[in-house]
Amino acid sequence: xxxxxxxxxxxxxxxxxxxxxxxxxxxxxxxxxxxxxxxxxxxxxxxxxxxxxxxxxxxxxxxxxxxxxxxxxxxxxxxxxxxxxxxxxxxxxxxxxxxxxxxxxxxxxxxxxxxxxxxxxxxxxxxxxxxxxxxxxxxxxxxxxxxxxxxxxxxxxxxxxxxxxxxxxxxxxxxxxxxxxxxxxxxxxxxxxxxxxxxx
Length: 200
Fold this sequence. Notes:
Blueprint: H1 27-32, E1 49-51, H2 58-70, H3 76-82, H4 92-95, E2 97-103, E3 106-116, E4 119-127, H5 136-150, E5 155-159, H6 165-170, E6 174-180, E7 188-195
Parallel strand pairs: 4-5
Antiparallel strand pairs: 1-2, 2-3, 3-4, 5-7, 6-7
């Protein structure tokens, strides 16, 4: 599967998670409506090929996730704690769906989705720091939504980094609470969701 989409990325906000989330006047509507992939996505600033990874690429893709996470300015100890959660294992190719965004023959982004019954989880979505705000993140999110719908999911959930949460909200996700970090005990992350329209 290959496609080329260009959707602009988001800018970072404070890494600290606020105690409360301001109510968006459109939040109720978002919860009742479903996300629809545009029939004609806007052209990307980068020509992208979305494809499956090979097992030999998993180590390099893990390093890509690590570099992307580090963009938010986390310290060395924090990044070490996140290394496992940011890494891919061979079994991930069998248990989850993974897509690589490639430009010029090189991976510049990666996304991972797990679908169980009608619920999909966006486990990873990372973009090479040099490719941020190029549309790569949005292209990978569109891929994740599309593949989740085709497998029968009606909702996509996202345990987002606080800095990445605004990007998902702009894409139509809404807050459903908080989720514990899989890497740092006691740290809570914004939990977001997107309702998915049935696949065509």
